[in-house]
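Render this sequence as a predicted structure.
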Amino acid sequence: MTTPDLSRYARQIIFPDLGEAGQRRLLDATVALIGCGATGTVIANHLARSGVGHLRIVDRDFIELNNLQRQLLFDEQDIADGLPKAEAARRKLSRINSQIAVEGIVADVTADNILELLAGADLAMDGADNFETRFLLNDACVQLGLPWVYTGVIASYGMTMTIRPGETACLRCLLDQLPAPGTAPTCDTAGVLAPAVAVVASIAAGEALKLLAGFGELNAGSLLNFDLLDNSLERFEVLRRPDCPACGQHDFEFLHAETGTRTATLCGRNAVQISVAGRPALDLASLAQRLRAAGERDVTVNPYLLRATLGGLDVTLFPDGRAIIKGTEDESIARTIYARYVGV
């Protein structure tokens, strides 16, 4: 990195609440972005252009054609080149701002690596596509005392909440337990509008700038909801819960891998098994109905299992939430398919 040319940031430096001192704080900051899909690309784009000095982008996925509708850092050439999202984002952002350090890490975020991925960060940002990763991120940030910004968008609406461990409610104060498999809508079952993504992720990026540079009022301890359909913007206070498993009891069950998704490659079968501990039963009939409504035609179901071709892979789901995903031995790909269509 060269000595930063502050003229690049002239239009935000003249904003009196930020100023040169705030800009230098941004340049000295490190942000870990967990996930670089729809919300993650918008957040990363804003932070890089605003001069956050070190961006660490972590994502397990690769780019597909349907991503381009809303994932603003990517283009058709990235698909032709077969780039993973973290690397494509690193290349784009490095061309946008060569004065900052952009680190692209192609990895599945797990209890085994999340503390290392967050090491040295001043702030963590949520660009994840599933609640399991968010609950894991919440556990890690609460344990580390690291602030983070929760962000989620589906269909036409989204939400964001800034979490300061020890000062505000955490994600588990808001959502005590993971949604049961198949009950939460996903982009692949409910769709998503790109402008809704851009609005909510931009608010989240603004929270990051305020927190890092030390200006303005944070949306800390409150959930902010935006809906593109009716242009509503609402804010709800979230109270800290003394019985919260994470920030109240410091029982970090996701960080300690006591619950959540487990994956195992099935030897000789070109398949990965995903098992889900501690979850309510999966309603196979309801999930099949949602998949068909989303345009998935190759779906069969009986009381014992659901079979479907999803994302080009043969998927078999069981009532206990277990899945066998055939056609790959890459556990990160299998986890992506599971999160995309089952939603956890």
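Summary. The radius of gyration is 20 Å. The domain at 260-341 is CATH 3.30.310.10 (TATA-Binding Protein).
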